[in-house]
Amino acid sequence: MPADTEKRAAAQAAAQLVEDGMRVGLGTGSTVAFLLPALAARGLRGLRCVATSTATEQRARELGLAVESFDRLDRLDIAIDGADQVAPDGWLVKGGGGAHTREKAVAVTADRFVVIVHAEKLVDAIHGPVPLELMRFGLPSTLRRLGGRERVRIREGWPPSPDNGVIADLEGPVGDPAEVAGRLAGTVGVVDHGLFAPELVTEVIVAGPGGVEHRHQ
Ligand code: DER
């Protein structure tokens, strides 16, 4: 089954989880690109949506979804987003699209964080690269403390994040994602990283040749 068919199936399944009046976090990426029209087609009333990127915000508004600033909501009923990798223990890698900082802020705010992926995103173990958002201020110092430019590749030509961060990738093996996540979170100059802990994730909806599977964490 082509990837887009599977992405659409996972996205449509997630769209069914949204109800009238919900506060909804909208992720970023090509799988979410299928979620937005599926959600709009439901014709739900009173939705309040928060977007994790300008691309998602623009597309959601085009489809008539009510998008508002994340400054006005301190809690969300559900957030739905894609992932780059999903491991059996529930660890995710996100940030292929460079939106992981805002995506994580939305995910932790939601009562339910639902991840939508096609089967190719399933991995036996988390591996690099791990996306990073780095503070522009003192970037050379941060790079040195992360192991230098051979370990951290800045995405050349990539636009800064909406919060003016530099998007990069930590190359090399990950080993224990919890250890790497803790080390990155404790590194001054790292705004956030693309490792999402299993505790963040409520459910992973996986679409594959055999159909759509809901995996509750
Ligand atoms: O960049 C991101 O965090 C995206 O959500 C990514 O993890 C999934 O993007 P995709 O749906 O285009 O594969």
Please tag this protein with its features:
Rossmann fold, 6 helices, binds D-4-phosphoerythronic acid, six-stranded mixed sheet, alpha/beta, four-stranded antiparallel sheet, 2 domains, Alpha-Beta Plaits, 13 strands, 217 residues
Protein architecture, described:
The structure is a single chain. By secondary structure, the chain is α/β, with parallel strands linked by helices. It has two domains: 131 residues, 3-Layer(aba) Sandwich (Rossmann fold), CATH 3.40.50; 66 residues, ACT domain (Alpha-Beta Plaits, 2-Layer Sandwich). It contains six helices and 13 strands. The strands form three sheets. It has a six-stranded mixed beta sheet. A four-stranded antiparallel beta sheet has the order 8-9-7-10, covered by helices on one side. β1, α2 and β2 form a beta-alpha-beta unit. The structure holds D-4-phosphoerythronic acid. This is Ribose 5-phosphate isomerase A. Pfam families: Rib_5-P_isom_A (PF06026). Keywords: Isomerase. It catalyses: aldehydo-D-ribose 5-phosphate = D-ribulose 5-phosphate.
Give a quick summary of the entry.
The radius of gyration is 17 Å and the shape is globular. 44% of the residues are buried. 27% of the residues lie in helices and 27% in strands.
Terminal CA distance: 26 Å
**Strand order, sheet with most strands:** 2-1-3-6-12-13
The pLDDT mean sits at 97
Give the SSE order as H and E letters. HEHEHEEEHEEHEEHEEEE
Contiguous uncertain segments of 5+ residues: none
Assembly category: single chain
Compile the SSE list and pairings.
Blueprint: H1 3-15, E1 23-26, H2 32-41, E2 48-51, H3 54-62, E3 76-81, E4 85-86, E5 92-93, H4 100-109, E6 110-118, E7 130-134, H5 139-146, E8 152-154, E9 166-170, H6 177-185, E10 190-193, E11 195-196, E12 203-208, E13 211-216
Parallel strand pairs: 1-2, 1-3, 3-6, 6-12
Antiparallel strand pairs: 4-5, 5-11, 7-9, 7-10, 8-9, 12-13
The structure holds D-4-phosphoerythronic acid (DER).
Pathway: Carbohydrate degradation
Enzyme class: isomerase
GO molecular function: ribose-5-phosphate isomerase activity
